[in-house]
Structure prediction request, 602 residues.
Amino acid sequence: MLGEGIIQGLLETARNFFGSYVEKDRLTTVQFPEERRPLPEASRNFPFLLYDGTDPDAGLRCVSCQICEKECPPRCIHIEKSKDKKPDFVGKMQAYPAVFDIDVSVCMSCQICVEVCPFDAIRMDTEFELSTTDRFGSLLYTKRELAKSNEYYRKIHPTEAAECDARRAKDVEDTKAKAAAAAAAAAAKAAQAKDPAAAPPPASSASTNGAAAPARSEVKENQ
Amino acid sequence: MSNDLLEVDPIAGQGEIMEVSMGPHHPSTHGVFRMDVRLEGEKVVRLKPVFGYLHRNHEKIAEHGAYLAAIPYTDRLDYLCSMTNNWGYCLAVEKLAGITVPERAEYIRVIVAELTRFQNHAGLVGFLLQDMGASGTPLMYAFREREKVLDLFESLSGARMMCNYMRFGGLRVDATAAWLDEVRRLLPALPRFLDEFENLLRANEILMARTQGTGRLSRELAVSAGVTGPMLRASGVNYDVRKVDKYGIYDRFDFRVPLGDHGDVYDRYMMRILEMRETVKILEQALRGIPEGPIMDPKVRLRGLRPKAGEAYGRIESPKGELGFFLISDGTTNPYRYRVRPPSMINLTILEDMCLGQNIADVVVTLGSVDIVLGEVDR
Prediction:
């Protein structure tokens, strides 16, 4: 019968219309500004810089190695390396970025900077309500605007942040262990210099010295 | 185009010809695309697709960046199907550098690619019906389902559309057990949506009058023009890169390739519905068979990859057709030559042949059934 298909279709529309009152599956929208869905944990928008502790200048993790600047596909990161150095979280002296700008009007939120960063210093933010009336100044984020605390990171990406914290805690422990080993080796060497007769076999002492050499230089730099 | 107007026109002098420039911002032209249409009354006697308005220099940008830096740009080719674009590019780099992909990563690739196919086809049939004048209702139903898939993509990769998820040698992040459960929960809802959607319009007399016999594409012409994807299969040619190349692990799945008979708009519309059903089948099998394990080849250097000098062509069955990436390496960190074979552009070149002799209103419907995304056409 002509028109049968149309009636069949209208029945489907009716089912969806009335179903939307009872079935959550058929009415999936929310009244946005008042009602908000939680963002998924993996969600990303623009990058920010992480700092430890409370001072964004002293605790900034970035050592301005400039890998992210080089790897960024649209080249929206601009970094200028500092002349002086400051100690990082394990106490090693590192440079820091004198200037770190991200042009978010160019950034395409691809997360490649996060992937290539070996220092866990840059992460993706989830903030998306960033509209502004100033086209130029407000879209160029400087170091001060980009710096956000580790507590904030734990809040927006809990799983990822826990992994990152564990990795860094291990780094601190490793450095301590290395420093202790280096101190022990130094003590042994001092003892050996005082009393050459009691020296351990040369092969083993050489290997200990070789392994501990970089760690010892770190400790020296610290003092 | 302006030169063309000065040429002696073979159809001039056969009656009053009107020239209409449809686009570049016509609401139903799916983006910045223009058609120079010449009409005799309501009949189309000439049609010239004009594209390039969205050209973003994708290929040259990729040649100047590292291999890794091109992946987020491939998201922006066909911006509805970023997952399959990533896969095509990664496949080419993997062939070039001889990288193998772990089993689990292959399974997740199939799952996200088939979800992409589903959401692309759902969006397309919605838009196609919108072009025909079924304002709103089918499109909203289709978008409701598509949204569920996009939510899954967001919780997996962090972005709804610009996923940037695959890497040569595997994937960026692993899918958690919770995420896989989410997909399993979504799966039974998809056939229900398809049943309802078919009920809604399949037997609709207006739809049939509008689409059957419209925009015919013959088998021979489709093959000789290099048309691929659902459009080619609607003309009755059995060609699916998933079956022909068996890239990834597609040889392990049991699915059928639907074929059309007439090559008209109705066949192309039904082709998408049937392919969505097959997609659900593949998803079920992939979710059943997914193993545990690593998702990334540990030997791969993502940063500073230097493949040996040579060339490779990686192709996949994207929702729109055969998507190919051709790469030539000269041993440095960036490709010497990079070329994309965009399925929607090649499918679009045949538009004039499908529209000649039709009414102008059918041009819009025929264009809608081609399934173009201008990001891919213009690159």
Q: What stands out?
A: Strands of chain B lie at 18-22, 34-40, 43-50, 166-167, 170-171, 310-318, 321-329, 337-341. Chain B touches chain A at residues 65-66, 68-73, 75-76, 137, 141, 144, 147-148, 151, 154-159, 162, 164, 172-173, 189, 196, 199-208, 302-303 (CB under 8 Å). Chain B has a mean pLDDT of 85. The radius of gyration of chain B is 21 Å.
